[in-house]
Queue: 2 jobs
Job 1
Amino acid sequence: MVSSGQAATVTYADIGKAAGSFQRSLTCSLSVADAVARLHRAIEAADFWVLHEIDPQALLLGGGYAIAPARQILFFHPRFMVRLLAADPAALLEAPLKFGVIELSAGNVMLRWADPAAAFARYGNRALTELGQELAAACDTIAAGAGLE
């Protein structure tokens, strides 16, 4: 840990190319706070529950590191959880879904999320594959509904 009053600045690396095969993303010119507020509204409008919001910037600062604004929004709904558990309880680790909002060095904000279709397809279970596709479409709808594009 860095001594009191001093925070080591952490610069984000470039996004790895492999992430494109299992994550989705878009970039906008909103602030992190505005993007998060819009996401909250869009998640609720899509009939999901916002379960928690994590502030990595505050957490890392407490550990002596300074990063650009970033948030993680965890969301899901019981109607999907019961389907997941009925199909394969091992898939519990895929829930809740999460959006990451990160301020980039150019001042733009990037929204990222794991592709549920890719995550659930790994189980080789038709019910989970269908659930993953449904959740992937919901994530796309939420991102579009938040007006971040």
Job 2
Amino acid sequence: MQELQLLNEKLNQLLKKHAALQAENKRLQATVSEHKGVMDKLNKKLSGLEEGLIATHISTGMNGEQKLGMRKQLDTVINEIDKILNTLND
């Protein structure tokens, strides 16, 4: 009889932990969703800024080497953003 009571107590503890973990999971999923939204907005803003920057540099007459350097920098920034998005998706 005492064993059943002990088993019942352990079961209740596990159920409480399960409920707490489910609540935490929901909260974390909401946070991830919020961060994805922010990242999407930032990506759109970054794209607009990149286009403006490229247009400005082209109009000011950058040479080929400068254009290549700028392109590498932009690619690095975009790759970092992609890594962050992939991390959020996991």
